[in-house]
Write a structure and sequence with these properties.
It contains 20 helices and 6 strands. The protein has helices at 38-41, 48-55, 59-64, 83-89, 91-95, 106-115, 125-152, 160-173, 179-201, 220-243, 247-252, 254-279, 282-294, 308-319, 321-346, 357-368, 381-399, 402-440, 443-455, 458-462, and strands at residues 24-29, 32-37, 69-71, 76-79, 209-210, 216-217. Helix 14 (308-319) crosses helix 18. The chain starts with 23 loop residues before the first strand and ends in a 27-residue tail after the last helix. Residues 415-452 form a coiled coil.
Length: 489
């Protein structure tokens, strides 16, 4: 009786007389049987299928290091892998490139390529783009999960001031963390609305008062309400600045710059009112204060901090710069052409309103954008025909880029909802996995877990492994292997 390690199959010449190019390899992947010939496989000798050609002479140890099972009678190799992904991967032996079939998870397909030892460079560029997008999504999910874990976990080695900073930051920046944080977010939202309404109502002449010099000014009550709102905004900004983990990044953030622009005019105008009169004329001080008061409109942008819809709209516009650029280019060309034609056609009319081509730009803008104030209009027949054509071209030019912009908005909005749901799903699976491990662990381990839970570091130290279908490797330091049955579709 021969030992398994010394076993040699009778149909293989150990002297190497049988050429590898003429060999026939039968592979069964997840119940799907494929036949390969050596001349195709040896083109890529570093792949797993090419290694099957020479593994028969090495015995069982060599065979089972490459496959899950082997039938010597049928000379058939068995693999418990995804057959759909395998059908795509074997294209590299015939066409030199791989296209990922629609409906296959890109991350799972990448894992399959790594198993079959096929380099990612053979993946087509369109599929690489899809893979990179999926990686970015998983990284975003991992980042959100890690942020939640950081909020749940408390490092006992940190100082009391550091823990207090984290509590304040979570209290002001994350309304979903607790009920008081949601109350603060609602109050901040109401202060923004009240401040904006007061700014608008203060310009109504009937609600204004006249000072000793006969100048109209805001009602003292409205001024007091605005002062209270500015006090709230100032306190909120200072607390967020003190508790921020990265103050440099905090100061350069767009929304925080908006907060400063909403607060700063009040203090500058207050300084000019009390000290500026001594340094300059009173009329100049009033003009400067009036100009600074106009800057108060910046506080309306603070609503974006509490509105996911406004944030989504901002992102959609940022992703639509190309479409917006095309829109502006279409309008610029149309404005130049139709204003020049309008000036030329209307120049002969004695009562023409088109004095020059630059002045005609205004007419072309309000015509192509379908506004039509009527302050400038053509009087000749050709001029009216030119106006009709410019109107139709303007409608077409504006309508064309709208659909891509709306698609970007909807795509980003749906993506954010999916990522949020996926992050919550990962946390639930982590908690379930930790609970199962806690129930099956030893008594000492249970005591350690309960002790860590009391210290607050349970989530940050234990909830690192997820066994969901969208396994996130970024959240685990351990190496996990997935079979075909675990791959997500």
């Amino acid at each position: 009786i021969k030992m398994a390690g010394d076993f040699r199959f009778p149909d293989v010449d150990t002297d190497g007389s049988e050429k590898s190019e003429e060999m026939e390899i039968v592979v069964n992947v997840g119940g799907v049987r494929q036949v390969f010939y050596g001349d195709n496989l040896i083109q890529y000798p570093e792949t797993r299928l090419a290694e099957l050609i020479n593994c028969l002479s090495g015995g069982y140890d060599s065979i089972f290091s490459l496959c899950d099972d082997y039938d010597p009678g049928k000379r058939e190799f068995y693999f418990d892998r995804d057959p759909d992904a395998f059908k795509c991967i074997i294209d590299v032996y015939y066409f030199g490139e791989i296209h990922m079939k629609k409906g296959i998870c890109p991350i799972c397909f990448k894992n399959e390529m790594e198993f079959w030892k096929v380099d990612l460079k053979f993946l087509d560029d369109c599929c690489k783009t899809h893979l990179s997008e999926k990686k970015e999504e998983l990284e975003e999910i991992a980042r959100r999960v890690q942020l939640i874990l950081d909020d749940l976990g408390v490092d006992a080695s940190e100082s009391r001031w550091k823990r207090c900073q984290k509590c304040i930051w979570k209290f002001l920046e994350k309304p979903e963390s607790s009920y008081p944080a949601r109350v603060i977010a609602v109050l901040s939202f109401l202060f923004i609305l009240i401040s904006s309404v007061v700014m608008c109502v203060g310009t109504i002449p009937d609600l204004q008062v006249v000072d000793a010099e006969g100048n109209r000014m805001e009602h003292p009550t409205l001024d007091s309400i605005e002062t209270a709102c500015i006090g709230w905004f100032t306190m909120e900004y200072v607390l967020r600045l003190i508790s921020s983990p990265n103050k440099f990044h905090f100061a350069l953030s767009f929304m925080n710059i908006v907060d400063v622009l909403a607060i700063l005019p009040f203090y500058v105008s207050l300084t000019l009112t009390h000290l500026g009169a001594k340094l300059m004329e009173l009329s100049n001080v009033q003009q400067a204060v009036q100009a600074l008061r106009i800057m108060r409109i910046a506080r309306i942008f603070k609503l974006a901090r509490h509105s996911s819809g406004l944030q989504t709209l901002t992102y959609a516009l940022k992703r639509s710069f190309k479409e917006l650029g095309l829109l502006l280019m279409y309008l610029a060309v149309g404005i130049f052409v139709f204003s020049a034609l309008g000036y030329t056609m209307e120049q002969s009319h004695p009562e023409t309103l088109f004095k020059s081509i630059p002045q005609s730009f205004w007419w072309a803008i309000i015509t192509m954008t379908t506004v039509g104030y009527g302050d400038i209009y053509p009087k000749t027949t050709l001029g009216k025909l030119n106006a009709a054509i410019s109107f139709l071209c303007g409608v077409i030019a504006i309508a064309l880029p709208i659909h891509p912009i709306i698609n970007n908005f909807v795509r980003y909005y749906n993506k954010q909802r999916v990522l949020e749901t996926a992050a919550k799903h990962e946390l639930e699976l982590m908690e379930l996995n930790s609970a199962e491990g806690k129930a099956t662990g030893s008594k000492s381990e249970l005591e350690d877990l309960s002790r860590e839970g009391k210290e607050g570091s349970f989530y940050s130290s234990r909830l690192k492994v997820s066994h969901s279908d969208t396994f996130i490797h970024l959240l685990s330091e351990e190496k996990h292997y997935r079979t075909r049955l675990q791959s997500c579709k």
